[in-house]
Amino acid sequence: MTWLQENWIIAVVGLVVAVILLWWLFGRSKADDLAPPVIEPAKPAKPLEPVKPEIVAAEPARFKPIVPAPVPAAKAPPAPTAPVAAAEPGRPAPAPEPAATPAPIAAEPAAPAAAPEPLPEPAPAPAPTPTLPPEAAAPKTDNLQLLKGVGPKMVALLGGLGVTSYQQIANWTDADIAAIDPQLGAFQGRIARDNIVDQAGYLARGDKAGFEAKYGALGGDL
C-alpha cells in the first residue's frame, strides 16, 4: 500500500494502458466477428446445350364407324274392304263381311335323300396255279438195285442224297461223282469201279439188250 500511495501516478497510467489494450483487443475480435464473410466469385456456368425436342409420331385419328340408321319396315297396305251397299230406306244396313284370310300353305315334306348305292365288291382274283419248273418236279423213282454193285444200303444212301432214278445217275459228271462219292461211306469208290453211271445210261434209255450184252442178265424188269 505504501508503494501504491507513493507511485499512484504510475499505477493509474498502467491501469489506463491496460484498459486501452483490453479495449483494443476486444474491439478487434468483435470487428472480425462482425465482418461479412468473403464470398468467392461464382465460376461462370457452362452454357446449356439446347434440348432437342422429341418428335412423337401422331397417331391417326380413330373414327367410329358410321352405323347406318335402320330402315323402317314398310307398312302393309290395308286390306281392301267390300263396298257397302247403300241401305234402302226402312231396311237395316248389312253388316260388313270379314276380310278373308288366305289359307296357310302346308309345307311339303322334304323328300329323304336317296342313300348311295353300295359299290359292288370286286371279285377276288383267282389264286395262281403254282407251276413247278422241270427241275423242281419230283424225280422218277426207279429200282436202283438192278444196277450191278448197288444193294439196299447203297440205295438208302443215294435216296438220302435225293438220287432215285437212272437218269439222275446217268447225268452225273466227274465233279458230281467227286462230290457224292465221299458221302457213300463204306461204298466209296464203287461208282467208278462198277461203272454205275454207264449202267444207268442203258437203263435210262430202256436198252435192256445192250445192258445185258455188256453187264450180264438184268435180274428184273425195267
Which features would summarize this protein structure in a list?
222 residues; 8 helices; elongated
Explain what this protein looks like in three dimensions.
With 222 residues, this protein is mainly alpha-helical. The chain is built from 8 helices and no strands. It has helices at residues 2-6, 8-34, 152-160, 166-170, 174-180, 190-193, 196-205, 208-215. It is elongated. The protein starts with a helix and ends in a 7-residue tail after the last helix.
SSE topology sketch:
Layout: H1 2-6, H2 8-34, H3 152-160, H4 166-170, H5 174-180, H6 190-193, H7 196-205, H8 208-215
Order of helices and strands: HHHHHHHH
Shape: elongated
Number of helices: 8
Proportion of residues in helical segments: 25-40%
Overall pLDDT metric = 73
Classification by helices and strands: mainly alpha
Percentage of β-strand residues: under 5%
Low-confidence segments, given as residue ranges, are 82-87, 129-136
CA distance, first residue to last residue: 195 Å
Secondary structure: number of strands: 0
Rg, alpha carbons: 76 Å
What does the largest sheet look like? none
